[in-house]
Amino acid sequence: MAGVLDDAQVSRILSITAHPDDVDFAAAGTVARWTEAGIEVVYCVVTDGDAGGFDENFPRAEMAPLRRAEQVAAAKCLGVHDVRFLGYPDGRVEATLDLRRDLARVIRQVRPDRLVCPSPERSYARIGFGHPDHRAVGSAALDAVYPDARNPFAFPELRERESLAAWTVREVWIAGGPDPNHYVDVTGTFARKVAALRAHESQTGHMADLAGRLRDRLAVTARLAGLPEGRLAEGFRVLDTA
Ligand SMILES: [Zn+2]
To answer: Is 41 helix (H, G, I), strand (E, B) or coil?
Structure first.
């Protein structure tokens, strides 16, 4: 297990993801544990998921507002009430300087102790983990943590025009990456994770036995974590970024 900050030392956590639903598939059980412990959690979602959904008859122009609403509803299921969208186009995210600046801005606004983001690495074992938007957002988020958000001379317009002081994130949790080194037992919050994912009706409404599939996946992770039979877990790669 990695050396991880005690949750009692953590006041605010920022989750950065590429699409509405990413945080719920990867980390909803863990987010529910954090909010139950009194930690404030803020979501920043880079795209509106406008390339998502499965119904070809659904008007595409309505997809972005629908998915934003679904993410806000899913967040409420977990006690998260601050959800920010950056409006980048779904499926075309690159780790540009503009994205790094936009993420550094949110980090300086929220001033989180801990940040959750996707992995910049491709997984050869599970290709769905390596969606290009996830990798781009993971890469830009890590660059925003170090050096952009903490260096007062990076993106000076943030300080000069928006009065946003530099901020150092102490710890990053990479969710859904290929090599987790820390596990959270989410058996007690599993029902809230399922509720959050059901709120993403356009993405999960067609899935038979959503709860059963999630339970199977989290049980595999719990076995990797060495937890007893019957437990469920989510896995992360935790980085000390202080
Ligand atoms: Zn995604």
So the answer is: strand
